[in-house]
Amino acid sequence: MAIHSPFRNLVVGVDRKLPLVNGKYVTGINFDNAATTPPLHSVMEELGDFAPWYSSIHRGAGYKSILSSDVYEEGRDVIKKFVNADHTRDVVIYTKNTTEAINLLSYILEQKDDKQVILSTDMEHLANDLPWRDKFLVDYVSIDEFGKLSLEDLEMKLIHYGGRIKLVTVTGASNVTGYKNPIYKIAKLAHKYEAKILVDGAQLAPHCPIDMKDYESLEHLDYLVFSAHKMYAPFGIGVLIGPKETFEGEEPYCKGGGAVKLVSHQFIAWDTPPHKEEAGTPNVMGVVALLAAIKTLSSIGMQVIDNYEQNLIHYAIAGLTSIPDIKLYCCAGNKEDRLGIIAFDLPGIHHELLANILSHEAGIAVRNGLFCAHPYIEKLLGITNQKLSDIQKNPNVPCPGLVRMSLGLYNNSDEVDILIDLLHQISKNKKAYIQKY
Ligand code: PMP
């Protein structure tokens, strides 16, 4: 049965026609939502409505400056409510995106002279791997044969390091396989062994509810990060949420005006968090966009969005499975344990060529390659260290990778049908397509 999104008309650009290789135009299909999402109409409207009031914040005494400061500051409470962060104990720090948020936290935590081990996982985006590497001893929770996180290995490692783990840092959902991690079970385990937990919510936040839970709960999420550009508000803002005390007393990650109370040539008196971590002129328009997106997503209901996308993802998986030689990297677990992300390959056609064919023949946007999760895909594909070193040394060796389709709340099943039909065609006529491109 066809699945039509009731949310399609909320999104900008969904009916935009794109040119094909044959000179014809078709309505573009965006299956690259895990990378970034188009803006909502409500976001554009709020930006337009706010623009006449925009002004420099915090330091201005003018009416517009005060109004802009209020929007920016009050936005922190809206964001806290969205993920049930603690109203008084947590701070929301505005960042550029998830990557900057994790870099910031890694810098702050490095200054705390207690435990020196970070437990990341084999399925992380590089944003939740590289910032830790130069500052801590980093170990990685392993994955099973399907690419799912091993909770047994997590507990073994927590025991092995005997209380030395500062943080378990884990993605809420993978940007490669779409697997959702059991973040509350992971939080419980981390807390049992006196570690904190950071959830990388970049993929989770646009698709399903997140609840940071009370501090008293063992399932409490200590830190949470996400990016607005994956939540239909692509205007350069992200957030880091965590306990205020983490940021008190430490050197800020970025230094300059706006982060201080008073400075002389003899001393620097830093402001309190979150302001201390937000040096420079802040991205107020980005905040306005994020707040507008949160308003619209919340009024639909994150659970409603999740339910809609669950239907569509199972429709897509069923269709993709019908293609004879396709290999999917997504289908290990319970129905509800995943997001609308499917990585696949079609043996005999390089991932880059396949992605190009989909674009040129049908105006379908997908992503191909290693999706900034190199170690995860290297493990999923079973690539040996020898092979990796050959690839690194020789630019002529084709880089391994996959093709990824990723859904948003506005995608329909007829778009999925177009992809599946074309993949059937390509699978049957590989040689012809390879010759053509
Ligand atoms: N983590 C995950 C799971 C992601 O999918 C991404 C973006 N692909 C990031 C982190 C980084 O997000 P950003 O580019 O917004 O910093």
Please explain how this structure is put together:
- The structure is a single chain.
- With 437 residues, this protein is an alpha/beta fold.
- The protein has two domains: 8-30 and 301-436, Alpha-Beta Complex (Aspartate Aminotransferase, domain 1), CATH 3.90.1150.10; 44-298, Aspartate Aminotransferase, domain 2 (3-Layer(aba) Sandwich).
- 37% of the residues lie in helices and 16% in strands.
- It is built from 14 helices and 17 strands.
- It has helices spanning 41-50, 63-83, 98-111, 130-133, 151-160, 183-192, 244-247, 284-300, 302-321, 351-362, 374-380, 385-393, 413-428, 430-436, and strands at 17-19, 25-27, 29-30, 90-95, 117-121, 137-141, 165-171, 196-200, 223-227, 238-243, 260-263, 268-270, 327-328, 341-345, 364-365, 367-369, 402-406.
- Strands 4-10-9-8-7-5-6 form a seven-stranded mixed sheet, with helices on both faces. The chain has a four-stranded antiparallel sheet with strand order 13-14-17-16, covered by helices on one side.
- A hairpin with a 5-residue loop joins strand 1 (17-19) and strand 2.
- Helix 2 crosses helix 8 and helix 9 (302-321) packs parallel to helix 13.
- The longest helix is centred in the first third of the chain and has 21 residues, at 63-83.
- It is globular.
- It starts with 16 loop residues before the first strand and ends with a helix.
- Bound molecules: 4'-deoxy-4'-aminopyridoxal-5'-phosphate.
- 4'-deoxy-4'-aminopyridoxal-5'-phosphate is lined by residues 34-35, 97-99, 125, 127-128, 171, 175, 200, 202-203, 227, 229, 238, 372.
- 4'-deoxy-4'-aminopyridoxal-5'-phosphate (PMP) binds next to helix 3.
